[in-house]
Amino acid sequence: MSDVGPFSAQATSATAIRSARARNVSIGLGSACALGFLVLPGREVVVALMSVACFAGAVGPAQRTGSHCVARLLKYVARSNWTKLSVSSTGQRCTICARGRSEVDLYEFVHRGRLDLSGGDRTLDSDMSALLERMAAEGGGTVTWHLTTSPQGSTSTLALPAGTRPARSHLSSDASAFDVASPWVLERWSYLRNAHEVMAIFSVVASRAQRTESVLRSLMPFGSGREASVVIHVVAAQRSNSVVGRHLHRWRANVALAGLGGFRQRASTDASTQLLSDRERDVALGRALCQVQVFITLRAGTRRELERAALALREDAHRVATRLERGNGRHALWLCAQLPGSPGAQRS
């Protein structure tokens, strides 16, 4: 499986390419306005303010420009603070409406003992890859894996598009019906609130850990009460080759332009180029191209407890060199995106 997601190099993702392009446009407009202010007679104050606004829109931490922050704030103000969640279940078939609609079949992962000792982890990886490749050949779709851990025990549930059959013998079809604590959720900038609790949702942005399993194991310690959702968007096989080819072409063009400008080519640049080349080869061999998102949901009875839980989560992420982003201004969108079938993916 080839993936574009939180555990890939940020510079190789489509989002990073679009961010770099928007930043370059903002810098170019700001430079033109600054030059106009210095050259044109009259020294118009409006032109100077436009230049400052363009430069402010081009800067920001972690590839988040000022224009991104303004756009997020405007979207938060424009949409309703209330989100309605509705679930209807018939056996293992579950229909979820939350700023979108998804229809999924739920399967619970059942096993005995440690998979890494019995070799079951390699079998699971192989079967999951086969499932994703089959979905890609059939036109793509969304698979979500949900892990919850509490002092009472842990559960692992796989949500597949309705009618899709898994390839694992120890995936039980009698998974517990998905339910929501409250049908209405109120969104605030830094948290969510329903009738019973407050929530905060974090996204795994990047990690230097070598294996995904070590990241999830550290972020989901037994009894922590956290919920993890791994959302896998499978790209249709007909589009995969053009998508990875376009990304690789853009990346190589950017590297070539940087070389012409006299910038030194770093080892990270070589690694990103090799990553994209390997991805293009995998897709050409029939592997599935996927976009992966990992969400961690925290729940608490009060705001104070929620912030303590958030601090503990960030400390766990720091120990495994993983960077998290809190869904400030997007908690409701991320809540809908991490539900089974990701009904709100188009809105996040």
Structure notes:
This protein is an alpha+beta fold. It has 10 helices and 14 strands. Strands 1, 2, 3, 4, 5, 6, 7, 8, 9, 10, 11, 12, 13 and 14 form a 14-stranded mixed beta sheet that branches. It is globular. The protein starts with a strand and ends in an 11-residue tail after the last helix. Residues 1-19 have low confidence and may be disordered.
Ordered list of secondary-structure elements with their pairings:
Layout: E1 2-4, H1 14-39, H2 45-58, H3 66-78, E2 82-84, E3 86-90, E4 93-97, E5 101-109, H4 115-118, H5 120-137, E6 141-150, E7 153-161, E8 171-172, E9 184-187, E10 192-193, E11 198-207, H6 212-219, E12 227-234, H7 237-260, H8 267-284, E13 289-300, H9 303-319, E14 322-326, H10 331-337
Parallel strand pairs: 1-13
Antiparallel strand pairs: 2-9, 3-4, 4-5, 5-7, 5-8, 6-7, 6-12, 9-10, 10-11, 11-13, 11-14, 12-13
Helix pairs in contact: 1-2, 7-8
Helical fraction: 40-55%
Number of separate strands? 14
Distance between the termini: 24 Å
The SS-based structural class is alpha+beta
What number is the mean pLDDT? 79
**Percent strand:** 25-35%
Order of helical and strand elements: EHHHEEEEHHEEEEEEHEHHEHEH
Report on the biggest sheet: 14 strands, mixed
Residue runs with pLDDT of under 50 for 5 or more positions? 1-19
- Gyration radius, in Å: 22 Å
Helical element count? 10
* Shape field: globular
